[in-house]
Write a structure and sequence with these properties.
Blueprint (H helix, E strand, L loop, with lengths): L10 H6 L1 H19 L10 H16 L3 E5 L3 E4 L8 H14 L3 H27 L1 H14 L2 H5 L5 H21 L2 H17 L7 H11 L4 H30 L2 H15 L5 H4 L5 H8 L2 H17 L3 H18 L9 H24 L4 H18 L3 H11 L4 H12 L5 E4 L3 H5 L4 E4 L4 E5 L4 E4 L15 E4 L13 H7 E7 L2 E6 L41
Parallel strand pairs: 3-4, 3-7
Antiparallel strand pairs: 1-2, 5-6, 7-9, 8-9
């Protein structure tokens, strides 16, 4: 195996290098700002995050691993909509138990996983390309992808990515040092990644291929390494299975639950097998992303430098796998994060190599500085500013529409009313009112032309039969779930009484007398910026109604 060139300075000299200390300091400040600034308001809590946050809240408050059907106490144990596993739910529930249930406490756990993802990426990139290149790869991932958006939310994608990268780093170390603990740790981290997001089970195949390639001439060593890896992998999986058995009551029910959930969610991945089609949007996003092509070119250069070394083989197998998975999956951008993160070390290596080649022909420092500025300017113009856009939105977001709606409900809606909504975040944020949440529907197809939903129940869901007094429709209810809440039916049977940001609040016609007459004249000035006068407030369209909620 060819050795990978290392920095020829000692560790002490590297640590004392002023330029690298400045680089580390700048990156640390950027990461701290990007992870923690305005964490409560941005991103705005939404449908998926609300499912996982509400599940963790139920676990911390009632001891049940369940999602809410109707608050406060009608719950569904291990609901199929809980598509993240205990590696996410359990630490968030612990944070809620220790610090209280609110948005920011759950997101602090998410941010911890985001920081772990960046550290694990640095570790993987350093194994492949050296320390300076690893630092650049973290910058490319931070600024060139939308990992900040997903990583600041209680979601499963970034935690699973972080644990997967930890597994890859352990395997790299094991291939170098022949450390049994590294292979055990690699399996353990991959198992934890599975318990965060189950499709990361696919990463077992490249790991198996990498180990087989490394030890193709020694089957006994292969068996030992593979045994340690599988031992580590099995521990989180068995714990996850034990949790399902404890919640559902039997092994057969746990297996049935796993299979049924995969059948309901299978259209998110390998759509050619389930839908008979590819999503052109997936190809357009990944193949149009400069980081992806920089990774391909950088991977070619790494292959030329190192040959097909075990580490390069393992990196390449994973990069190809996650590229294939995204190209055959639904086009949601967060599913492209594994492929883009794996592209970062190779892309950083290519950029550093290009910079070194250009400055090598320029003897003067002024020329080298010019090349650095020119290359940086080129990247600013050509490289996608996804991370910069997230940072800009994070700074400009000053309040939370769901929190403003919560304030509206507190001042205008009687607590004994039943509220029907598909906006799950409201049940998580508001413990004062009773919410009946729309039951599960699953995406079959989703693109600009059409949206197909799968109803797992034998009968059509009729939201009119829930007995709700209030209906609230937000961004999901007015778009994706229009077929569940048809606008014509809503207009016939419900009266719009207010709009708070993108939320529309309706009262069932004929039910006004069930509600308390409550009005807070100051509320119109607290619902958001830009409405200092009562006549221009979001409540100006309810002045003709006899009741104010």
């Amino acid at each position: 195996m060819k050795s990978i060139p290392r920095d020829n300075r000692s560790g002490l000299e590297w640590r004392l290098s002023p330029s690298r200390l400045v680089a580390w300091g700048a990156l640390g400040v950027l990461l701290a700002f990007a992870c923690f600034y305005n964490l409560e308001n941005y991103p705005i809590i939404w449908w998926d995050e609300a499912i996982f946050s509400e599940t963790a809240a139920n676990l911390s408050q009632t001891g049940r691993y369940a999602f809410t059907i109707q608050s406060p106490d009608q719950l569904s144990d291990l609901d199929y909509r809980i598509s993240v596993g205990p590696a996410v739910i359990l630490p968030v529930a612990l944070a809620y138990r220790l610090q209280g249930v609110n948005v920011i406490n759950g997101r602090l756990v998410a941010v911890a996983y985001l920081l772990l993802a960046m550290l694990a990426l640095y570790r993987v990139a350093r194994s492949l390309c050296g320390s300076a290149t690893a630092l650049l790869s973290v910058v490319l991932a931070l600024l060139g992808t939308d990992v900040l958006y997903w990583g600041r939310s209680v979601m499963g994608d970034v935690p699973a990515l972080a644990l997967f990268l930890c597994s890859l780093g352990c395997l790299f170390h094991g291939l170098d040092s022949d450390s049994g603990l590294s292979f055990l740790g690699g399996g353990l981290c991959l198992g934890l990644a599975f318990t965060a997001k189950e499709f990361y089970a696919a990463a077992f195949l490249p790991a198996l291929m990498g180990l087989a390639y490394q030890e193709r001439a020694d089957r006994s060593r292969l068996g030992k390494r593979l045994g340690l890896f599988c031992l580590g992998l099995s521990m989180p999986l068995l714990a996850y299975l034990a949790l399902k058995i404890a919640v559902l009551g039997s092994f057969s029910r746990a297996i049935h639950h796993f299979w049924q959930q995969k059948m309901l969610l299978r259209h998110e991945f390998f759509t050619p097998l389930t839908l008979g089609r590819f999503y052109s949007e997936s190809f357009a996003y990944l193949l149009g992303h400069p980081l992806f092509w920089l990774g391909i070119l950088g991977g070619y250069c790494l292959g030329q430098r190192d040959g097909l070394s075990p580490r390069f083989f393992l990196w390449l197998a994973n990069f190809l796998l996650w590229t294939l998975i995204y190209l055959t999956a639904v086009y949601w951008y967060r599913f492209a994060l594994p492929a883009l993160f794996l592209a970062c070390p190779a892309a950083a290596y290519l950029l550093r190599r290009a910079f070194a080649r250009m400055v090598s022909v320029l003897p003067h420092r002024l020329g080298q500085s010019f090349v650095a500025v020119a290359l940086g300017g080129f990247l600013l113009l050509w490289y996608p500013p996804a991370g910069v856009e997230v940072l800009g939105a994070m700074v400009s977001c000053r309040s939370s529409p769901p929190e403003r709606l919560k304030a509206f409900l507190h001042d205008h809606v009687a607590v004994d009313c039943l509220i029907e909504t598909p906006e799950y975040e409201l049940a998580f944020l508001d413990d004062e009112h009773r919410f009946h949440l729309m039951p599960e529907f699953y995406f079959v197809e989703s693109d600009a032309e059409r949206l197909v939903l799968l109803n797992p129940r034998p009968t059509k869901y009729d939201f009119e039969k829930t007995g709700a007094d209030i209906l609230i429709l937000g961004s999901f209810g007015k778009s994706i779930f229009r077929q569940v809440y048809p606008p014509g039916q809503v207009a016939r049977n419900w009266k719009k009484i207010a709009q708070v940001d993108f939320y529309e609040v309706y009262v069932r016609r004929g039910r006004e007398h069930y509600l308390a007459r409550k009005r807070n004249p100051q509320l119109s000035r607290t619902l958001g910026p830009g409405s200092p006068k009562p006549e221009s407030s979001p409540l100006s369209d309810v002045q003709d109604y006899p009741f104010y909620f």
